[in-house]
Amino acid sequence: MTDENTSLALVTGGNRGIGLAIAQSLAAAGHRVIITHRSANAPAGFLSVKMDVTSTESVEAGFAEIEEKYGTPEIIVANAGITKDGLVLRMSDSDFEDVVDANLTGAFRVARRASKGLLKLKRGRLIFIGSVVGGVGAAGQVNYSASKAGLLGMARSFARELGSRGITANVIAPGFVETDMTANLDQKRRDEIAKSVPLGRFCSAEEIANVVTFVASQEAGYITGALIPVDGGLGMGH
Q1: Is residue 233 a part of any domain in this protein?
Q2: Is residue 107 part of a domain?
Q3: Considering 46, 144, 176, 202, which one is annotated as catalytic?
Q4: Predicted TM-score (pTM) of this structure
Q5: How far is the first Cα of the chain from the last one, in angstroms, to the nearest whole number?
Q6: Cα torsion at 195, 197, 198, 202 (round to 10°)?
Q7: Which helix (H) or strand (E) holds 230?
Q8: pLDDT in tens, the chain (238 residues)
């Protein structure tokens, strides 16, 4: 990261929610930010490229377009993901496989392709967006919890394999975040969730984004292979 103010950042699934907050935070820090999207148009003010992380061909094509038009991304934020919640006895193979493919294998596809450019640059940041449930589990989210837990082993393997070339790999693990989905919860359930969090409240998407931006910075150059919780203490010890 020779000049962090001119680094090119890629945020998968950055068109809404946590991903958009991350993109906005990185842009505010001076980075050029590219957002990936599958169908919807990217928000105004950001570079964008169409990319489906569940398709190796789409990931390859997306990176080829980015490299041709903008250069090599130095900051990679693997944020794209899905949920297909359900009780385990009712969870189909496809419900499990689809979530793991999007959240875990999708992050692998992106990081693997990004590593080609990072190895040539001999610097870079791989940042994976995990979840507190990757450590503590969650009823009705066997698939999602498994996919997020897998990110940690993957990130630490990337850290060991690429660290000698100045490339870091870390996992940010949010807890309960204020999003469109949690906004639809009834007040009683929201209060129950808040009481389970030591800090007594939900996290904002901006608080997640601020940590991502720090991990992407020069100041975080000696942090790698880390699980960084941003969960109000909900998952402490995991």
Answers
A1: no
A2: yes
A3: 144
A4: 0.94
A5: 31
A6: -100
A7: strand 227-230
A8: 445 457 999 999 998 899 999 999 999 999 999 999 887 677 888 999 999 999 999 999 999 999 999 999 999 999 999 999 999 999 999 999 999 999 999 999 999 999 999 999 999 999 999 999 999 998 999 999 999 999 999 999 999 999 999 999 999 999 988 876 666 667 877 788 888 899 988 999 999 999 999 999 999 999 999 999 999 999 986 7
The reply to whether 9 falls in a domain is: yes
The structure tokens listed for 235 are 């998952």
Q: How many domains would you assign to the chain? A: 1
Whether 144 sits among the annotated catalytic residues: the reply is yes
CATH number of domain containing 95: 3.40.50.720
Cβ(124)–Cβ(114) below 8 Å = yes
Please indicate, yes or no, if residue 82 is contained in any of the structural domains.
Answer: yes
* Boundaries of domain holding 73: 4-226
